[in-house]
Amino acid sequence: MPGEFALIERIRARVRARPDVALGIGDDAALLDVPAGHQLVVTSDTLVAGVHFPPETAPADIGWKALAVNLSDLAAMAAAPAWCTLALTLPEADDVWLDGFLDGFFELADEHGVSLVGGDTTHGPLSITITAHGFVPEGQALRRDGAKAGDEVWVTGTLGDAAGALQQWRARGPFSAKLRYRLDRPTPRIEAGLALRGLATAGIDLSDGLAADLGHVLTASGLGARIDLGRLPTSRTLADHFDETARWPLQLSGGDDYELCFTAPASAAFAIEQALSERGVTATVIGQLEPQPGLRCTTPDGADYAPPRAGYQHFQGVH
Amino acid sequence: MPGEFALIERIRARVRARPDVALGIGDDAALLDVPAGHQLVVTSDTLVAGVHFPPETAPADIGWKALAVNLSDLAAMAAAPAWCTLALTLPEADDVWLDGFLDGFFELADEHGVSLVGGDTTHGPLSITITAHGFVPEGQALRRDGAKAGDEVWVTGTLGDAAGALQQWRARGPFSAKLRYRLDRPTPRIEAGLALRGLATAGIDLSDGLAADLGHVLTASGLGARIDLGRLPTSRTLADHFDETARWPLQLSGGDDYELCFTAPASAAFAIEQALSERGVTATVIGQLEPQPGLRCTTPDGADYAPPRAGYQHFQGVH
């Protein structure tokens, strides 16, 4: 695109080096060193304006979130993040927008020591694809297919905040800045993922909502689960804005939490709490795996509750 | 997007396995084994409808080209391709379009043994970002910064065919199907790249046109070059449709050739010709590197010729 080389220079100037990047931005491809005894972990996610975020989202929040959703996938594999590529499609070469985007992007990248090693800038409707790379010691990745019947089901942090923000945004009424922050600035649970190596049996990140994402673990592991709705971790802010029955659909099917959901035998519970609290991450047991396939939810009154269908809709139809 | 899981299954069903893919599509991220003693080579390129290809381009040609432009970058590094991720943004879930796209994509992927290991499908204006991964033995990558004064400048194949097709397409007049094929189905010079390990001093792929891309090598290596326009390799079809002075701008500044341009000492010329001809690739010496910075072109009459400015415009403005 016109001004592409100036754009690339603007991006490259902010990249932090890593010793395992033999050659970064500026050649046909990057040259990278994967440490011996480790597997490479690769994930790729796209954000499209008006589909994955409201059009008025601040550029810095878009930059943060585009990287965060990818790092969240690495966290779910218990991988240590290392590098990423950035494919940025922009309607016009706008330095102010780009600098804002890079502020958010590099704030998160630098926090996790992720080096930007390449990518592409093109002209077109606003869209961002990031491919993130990390490592995990051979055989220690947290997969979806390792859960065992009887394992407890855990989630990190709190659920439903982002979906609450989205519902408020759609209603065009009063909204909570705290909830909106959780939508725009999700926290990839990298530290939690690393702490769960050797402790959790399976894991996934919550992008599409607990029901859909836990459903993937259940399918991959050939199991079912019962979830106790009264144990779903809930932020005070969400509770202030939504009563219990309004919260459950947000927490089960809202998506965009980017918390980790993982499974582990009850015998590992103490070690898990200790390992996570050392890293400042809270986690909660919300249910248990059962041999019978399917997801069953129980209200605090002991009644069955069918989670509303959703998952992977995000902002679909917002534009 | 609605139907995303069906789309992913449709894609996954066509993936060919590789023994170094420990875990492919279907978890939060892929788990991959990089061979010992090798560096990982990573590149990422985006194609946007109406910007990088005319809107009426056949889906199979789009699928081929989206992968080809990435494999071309790996070829320019002398890397052996291994894996890729595919981020596909589609205006609607259209099985017929998708199947056509996958036909072209997997035709090329299977030809080079590239395994699709992950990605994302999203709703939005048509756009494709592929991140390609390959390996190169430690220290044997072909970089842009290794050229030496006195080295000869080579290009593979023929130049200007794709740019000729684009010019015909823009003129809306008669066109050559052979030239159009070169625009829609570029050949990534993977075999040539592998053959040049240990022989070439620097290399790049020709995506933006010879003048711009050779210019990157000159800048990175701190050198200049003189190119003999009479030696630019020209297909008979291009010569049939464009006379000499009409060809030069296409060959120097047209772009989309996806041939390799590389440099090597004259003493390596025989070994290079032998190594390339064993792989069925033609290559031509078109000039020589000089200490004085800048690119100078000489016509067959011995006159100086200034290449028209272009590079990295592609289909910009087509839409």
Automatic annotation (TrEMBL), chains A, B:
Keywords: ATP-binding, Kinase, Magnesium, Metal-binding, Nucleotide-binding, Thiamine biosynthesis, Transferase. Residues 148-296 form the PurM-like C-terminal domain. Belongs to the thiamine-monophosphate kinase family. Mg(2+) 2 binds at D45, D73. Mg(2+) 5 binds at D208. This is Thiamine-monophosphate kinase. Residues 26-136 form the PurM-like N-terminal domain. It comes from Arenimonas terrae.
